[in-house]
Amino acid sequence: MANLIVVCGPQAVGKMVVAESLRDKLKYMLNVK
C-alpha cells in the first residue's frame, strides 16, 4: 500500500481519499434509511 502511494503520487492518494469519503457517505445514507 505504501509503495503504491510512493509510486502513484499525491493525486492517487487524493482520489483514494475522495472515494473513501463517498463510500462513508453512502454507508451513512443506507444506515439512516
Brief write-up:
The protein has one domain (2-32). It is 91% helix and 0% strand. It has two helices and no strands.
Helix content: over 70%
Taking pLDDT < 50 over at least 5 consecutive residues as the criterion, the unreliable ranges are: none
Number of helices: 2
N-to-C SSE string, H for helix and E for strand? HH
**What is the radius of gyration?**
13 Å
Report on the architecture of this protein.
The protein is mainly alpha-helical and 33 residues long. It has one domain. Helices cover 91% and strands 0% of the residues. It is built from two helices and no strands.
Keywords summarizing the entry:
single chain, 33 residues, mainly alpha, 2 helices, 91% helix
List the helices and strands and how they pair.
Layout: H1 2-8, H2 10-32
